[in-house]
Structure formats: structure tokens, C-alpha cells
Write a structure and sequence with these properties.
Helix content of chain A: 55-70%
Largest sheet of chain B: none
Largest sheet of chain A: 7 strands, antiparallel
Strand order of the largest sheet of chain A: 4-3-2-1-5-6-7
Number of helices of chain A: 19
Radius of gyration of chain A: 26 Å
Distance between the termini of chain B: 15 Å
Low-confidence stretches of chain A: 410-425, 520-543
Helix content of chain B: over 70%
Oligomer: heterodimer
Number of strands of chain B: 0
Radius of gyration of chain B: 16 Å
Mean pLDDT of chain B: 75
Chain lengths: 543, 125
């Protein structure tokens, strides 16, 4: 125990932070990227997937139902997920007694129906999303690890208030050329600014998997989590199919009128699912978008085939609602583009916060003994943090190259149904390639940083990052389905990602340039002011 | 709009601190000025919070509050960066700084005026 409370807090802040910094950095960076989950997927699949969000008309729904009835006449449930304005494509799905299936469709003007497209089978942005809470170790306790990390982050946030207690006097201050001071101020400012953000994010992360992290009380009162779940959350009651009846045609316009009466205007249809579509008592459940509400439960309306309302879902308990609200806050489904960008920059700030913490520690120790150990940590720090950025770029490049290969390889007939089988075998490997590429690049850059001298390794990583991001951007600029087409169509989701790529490229280029001209300062002294996207603007404008 | 209000409020609060006031105007702050700036800053912040909570364009109170918090964070970062720029300009070219500084403060004053005006128009509406 340390002599004073503050000293022990400082100790806690330093070592808890240090041990978990890289893990937390990886989690926060990929988590922040998954704010643009759908957008990234859209961007990565853009080669083939060019359909756009339009309000579905009664005619559209009718045609989708027609497609489904051709494809899956025996299904017990059909579903339509409508395209959204964040670049999510329209998908059709069905479920029979044995199997479930879903696929992406696009409206075909010639036949007047929806035909299957073969979007590039990449994981897209979903990879970052799953990585940030499972660390790709789902079966090996990855989610427990992230839970612990979230807890450590909370500890770090609160002990940080004691550690950097001067930040109210030095509020709004960024002190000049001295590196350590600058880093400290940056750390403090970003820390203060992101306190609410980090708190909400970490706390909601713990709440989302509360059943995993606090299993004992659940097992005390219930047999399983499922039982608890059935008590607190509500769903539509089951319906029994009427065996000998045949479906009557659905009165879609009537249904839409019913929805308008209920929700007014200004809602977006999220999905439609139909239970027992071939029976007379088929049930049509329309779900709307979650709008600007924090809870992640979206409103839905159940109708019968004629468009009359059926029994609605009972209200949920308070406890479940609280969890839903935190779930919603974590996922930020309610954010429109501006708010999403703000949240994204907050996420980036917290990544910078974490990385700069380690840099401060390293800078402080420079004059002291144990220089060799520190050198290792410095190298690792550069490798892990910037290597991750490089890996992200590599991951995105992979999809572009594969789609380019596909287009070149004469299967530009992606719209045809025939080569679908060969595409699918191909597609499995795409997922594997991009995954191994991601981890391979990350590992390679860590190794490179360890093997090379510190300043060399750092330059190499910066150069690689700058090149990779600008390659991405250039490719995007030149591609047929690239940024120019997106500009023409006003495809905001696509443009966001392109803009971020451009900013990343500019940021790393500037950083590399600064390192390269600063030959004399090539000693240890050039450790980072590590920043990602939000900081980029600072760097650009200060030159 | 909300963001401008927040930014001007944060600007007032930061200028109420002697260090930053000095950095911008080259002289120490006087006590009444400090009080005025501080009051103005907190007042503007309250007004913006009120505005955020009152306007409910199809959203819930919780959503508005969260949005307000996020915007506040960004406003603070922006202000930190602005002050840092002012400082840097001064250390780099001492003479030019005077003009720049004036332009900067003018901007800020305009910001505040704008915020007030829009407040008035809002009130009228």
C-alpha cells in the first residue's frame, strides 16, 4: 500500500493502464470502426452491390413476396430486411422446418422482380465488430477477456481523475514543443472530454454480457439465462397454423395505410416478417426503425392478411428496458451522420488517450535505468498500435483486390445465377484470406518493429500505412464503382468511408514526412503523439 | 446551431481563465470581466442544454441529452485546439499575432452575437 490515497491511485492508474493498454487500444480502435459497420461493409462490397435505399412501395413488397414464394414455397416464415440509408442492402430470408437461408437481392428492372446478387463474400465491417468483443477468441473466453478489459478501463478512468487532478487548472491547455508536457496535456484533455463516453461504453459493455459476467445470481434464481430472458423480455405469442386453409392474397396497400395511421410519416420500414405465409391466419409483422430512441427495441405492428391489427406485443419490464437503453447507447443505432461522426471521433480520441498513456510512461522513464527493457516496450508499442492501423488498411485492400480479380477473371457475370456455386467456394477462401491477412500484417509489423532499430521500424510502419491508405484511396478514385459514382448518386455511406480513408492517408503521410525530414532527431526522442483520425486535422493544419 | 452555442459558451469559460485570457489579449484579466465571462459561459451552456432538451424532433429526452454531451465534448476539444493555435502563432511570429488575435477574438465575439441573435429569433418563433 502506498502512503497516500492519491499515490496508490497513481500506481493503480499506471500499472492497470500499462498492462491492458494494447488490448484496450485494439478493442477501442476496432470498436470505433464498428460505428461505421454497415458503411464499411457497403464500401467493401461496392464492386457488386450497388443498390440503394428507397422507401419500399407496396409494389416492391408485393414483388419481394412473389420472389419468396417462388424460392421457398414451403417455408414457415419469410422475411424481408429493407435496404437502409447506411448502405445496408435489401435482404430476403426464409425459414423452413429444417433450415434457414438469407440472401442479398437487388431489384431487376427487366423482370420486375428481385434477383439475387453475389456480393463479395467478405466479412466487411462485421469483422471489426465481432473482433472488438470476442478478439476472435470466442470459444476461448475472448468475451471474458474484453469484460475484464472494460472493467480495467473503468478503473483507469476513475483513478485517472485522481492522477491528473490538475486538469481543471490546466483545462484548455496544450503546452508546446516539449514532448512530455504535450503528451500529458493531450492525455488529460482527451481524458476529461471522453469521461462520459468511456464510462457509458465500458459500463454498457459490461451490461450487454451481464449474463456471462455475473452468472451466479442468475443460476441462483433460474435454471438458465434463457428462462430469465423469457421472463423479462416479451415477444409475440405463437400462432398455430391452420392446417387446411390456404393463404389469401395479402392486401399490402391496406397494411401500409395501417402503418401510416399508427406511426405517422417520417418512419423507415426496417423489416417485415411473415409467419406461416401459406395459411389463412398468416401474420405480417412490420418493424420500423428505432428512430431517435435510446432503447434498442424497435416498435412493430402485427397485421393479418387483410391489414387488420392483431394482438400486439406486451410491454417489457423496467430492468430489461434499462439494459436495452444501454445496449442502444453502446451501438448508437440512433445516430444520424453528424452524430455518428461525433461519436466516431470520440472513440478515436479514447484510442489516442490509451496509446498516449503508454507513450507518457515511456517518455518519463527515458532518463532512468533499465533502458533496454524500455526499448523493447517502445518498439512493441509502435508495432502494436500502428501495426493495427496498417492491418485495417490491409484488410480493406484485400476486398478490393479480390473483387478486382473477380471482375478481371471474367466472372463479371456476378449477376448471373450460374456461376454462383463456383463463387461460393471462392467466397469461403476470401474470408480466410482477409482474416489471415489482417493478423499476418499486424504480426509482421510488430516483428518488423522489434527487429529493426526503433526509428527505422517506425518509419517503415508509417510509410507502409501511408502507402496502404493512399493505395486504397487511389483505387477508390479510379474504380468503376468507386467514389465518383458514389458522388453522382449522393451515396453518403460510401463517401464517408472514402473521406476517412483520405484523411488516414494524409495523416500517415504527414507523420512519415515529419519523421523523414527530422533526421537529426532520429534518436529515441521521436516517440509518438499517436493520433488517429480526429487528430489528423490538427496535424494537417499545423503544416 | 446547438454546437455554436456550446462552442461560444466553452470559449467564454476558457477566456475567463487568466492564462488563456492573457494568451489572447496580452494582459491580465480583471475581476469583473472574469465574472462576466464566467457567468456568460455557464449561462450559455444552460441555455443550450435547455434548448437541447426542449426541442424534440421525434426523439426522446435521453437522446437529446446524449447528443448534447457529445457535442459538448467536441466543442471543448475544438476550443483547446483553437487556443493552442493562438498560442503557437504568437510564439512563432510575435507581431503578426496581434492582428490574428484580433481577428480571432472578433470571430468569437461574432459567434456569441450570432448565438444571441439566433436565440432571439428562436424566442420570437
Amino acid at each position: 500500500m502506498k502512503p497516500t490515497f492519491r499515490k496508490s491511485m497513481i500506481w493503480l492508474h499506471t500499472y492497470a493502464g500499462l498492462f491492458f493498454a494494447w488490448l484496450l487500444f485494439a478493442i477501442f480502435l476496432t470498436g470505433t470502426l464498428s460505428y461505421y459497420n454497415t458503411e464499411i461493409s457497403h464500401w467493401m462490397r461496392a464492386q457488386v452491390n450497388t443498390n440503394q435505399h428507397v422507401e419500399p412501395s407496396a409494389n416492391d413488397i408485393q414483388r419481394a413476396l412473389h420472389t419468396l414464394s417462388q424460392r421457398a414455397p414451403e417455408a414457415v416464415q419469410w422475411g424481408i430486411d429493407f435496404a437502409d440509408d447506411r448502405g445496408g442492402p435489401m435482404r430476403l430470408r426464409y425459414r423452413t422446418e429444417e433450415e434457414r437461408h438469407s440472401w442479398t437481392v437487388v431489384a431487376s428492372p427487366e423482370t420486375g422482380t428481385f434477383v439475387e446478387t453475389n456480393p463479395l463474400e467478405t466479412r466487411g465491417g462485421d469483422f471489426f465488430r465481432t473482433f472488438h468483443y470476442t478478439l476472435s477468441l470466442r470459444d476461448f473466453g475472448g468475451r471474458y477477456l474484453t469484460g475484464i478489459a472494460a472493467m480495467v478501463m473503468l478503473i483507469g478512468v476513475f483513478s485517472g481523475i485522481y492522477t491528473h487532478r490538475r486538469f481543471f487548472q490546466d483545462f484548455f491547455t496544450l503546452r508546446g514543443p516539449d514532448k512530455l508536457k504535450y503528451l500529458k496535456d493531450l492525455h488529460a484533455v482527451f481524458g476529461v472530454v471522453t469521461i462520459p463516453f468511456c464510462f457509458v461504453i465500458c459500463f454498457s459493455a459490461l451490461l450487454i454480457y451481464i449474463s456471462m459476467y455475473v452468472p451466479f445470481s442468475i443460476h441462483h434464481y433460474f435454471d438458465s439465462y434463457r428462462q430469465l430472458d423469457s421472463q423479462v423480455s416479451t415477444r409475440y405469442s405463437r400462432i398455430e397454423p391452420q392446417d387446411d386453409s390456404l393463404a389469401k392474397p395479402a392486401n399490402i396497400p391496406n397494411m401500409l395505410a395501417q402503418l401510416n395511421a399508427q406511426w405517422g410519416s417520417g418512419y423507415r420500414l426496417d423489416s417485415l416478417s411473415i409467419d406461416y405465409p401459406h395459411r389463412e391466419n398468416a401474420r405480417y409483422i412490420f418493424t420500423r426503425d428505432k428512430g431517435k430512441y435510446l432503447s434498442n427495441k424497435s416498435e412493430s405492428i402485427a397485421l393479418n392478411h387483410a391489414g387488420e391489427r392483431l394482438e400486439s406485443m406486451p410491454k417489457e419490464r423496467l430492468a430489461r428496458n434499462i439494459r436495452r437503453i444501454f445496449y442502444g447507447l453502446h451501438e448508437a443505432h440512433f445516430a444520424e451522420p453528424v452524430l455518428r461522426a461525433v461519436l466516431f471521433s470520440l472513440g478515436m480520441m479514447s484510442s489516442v488517450l490509451i496509446a498516449s498513456g503508454v507513450s507518457i510512461w515511456l517518455n518519463k522513464r527515458q532518463g532512468k535505468t533499465q533502458a533496454k527493457k524500455d526499448k523493447w516496450i517502445t518498439k512493441l508499442h509502435v508495432g502494436v498500435t500502428y501495426g493495427l492501423c496498417l492491418a485495417v488498411a490491409g484488410y480493406m485492400l484485400c476486398s478490393r483486390f479480390v473483387s478486382w480479380q473477380v471482375a478481371k477473371g471474367g466472372s463479371s457475370a456476378a449477376m448471373h445465377t450460374e456461376p454462383a456455386a463456383s463463387m461460393n467456394t471462392n467466397a469461403m477462401s476470401v474470408m480466410d484470406i482477409e482474416l489471415s491477412l489482417f493478423f499476418g500484417i499486424w504480426l509482421a509489423s510488430v516483428i518488423a518493429c522489434i527487429v529493426l532499430a526503433n526509428h527505422l521500424g517506425k518509419r517503415l510502419v508509417f510509410l507502409a500505412c501511408a502507402l496502404a491508405f493512399s493505395a486504397l484511396f487511389m483505387q477508390d478514385l479510379l474504380a468503376k464503382h468507386g467514389v465518383l459514382l458514389a458522388l453522382q448518386r449522393g451515396d453518403l455511406a460510401y463517401l464517408t468511408i472514402s473521406l476517412l480513408l483520405f484523411l488516414s492517408a494524409a495523416y500517415f503521410a504527414v507523420r512519415f514526412y515529419r519523421l523523414a525530414i527530422n533526421k537529426t532527431g532520429a534518436q529515441e526522442n521521436d516517440t509518438p503523439r499517436r493520433g488517429n483520425k480526429p487528430q489528423r486535422k490538427h496535424v494537417e493544419e499545423s503544416h | 446551431m446547438l454546437f455554436l452555442l456550446l462552442l461560444s459558451s466553452v470559449a467564454c469559460l476558457s477566456l475567463a481563465m487568466n492564462k488563456h485570457y492573457k494568451a489572447c489579449f496580452n494582459r491580465a484579466i480583471s475581476a469583473p470581466k472574469e465574472r462576466v465571462l464566467r457567468l456568460l459561459g455557464w449561462g450559455l451552456m444552460l441555455v443550450s442544454l435547455g434548448m437541447a432538451l426542449v426541442q424534440q424532433r421525434g426523439g426522446s429526452m435521453g437522446f437529446q441529452f446524449m447528443q448534447w454531451c457529445c457535442l459538448l465534448s467536441v466543442a471543448i476539444v475544438l476550443q483547446v485546439w483553437l487556443l493552442n493555435r493562438v498560442q503557437q502563432h504568437k510564439t512563432q511570429h510575435g507581431h503578426k499575432a496581434n492582428n490574428l488575435k484580433k481577428a480571432n477574438t472578433r470571430k468569437k465575439v461574432n459567434n456569441i452575437k450570432e448565438a444571441r441573435n439566433s436565440k432571439k429569433t428562436l424566442a420570437k418563433n
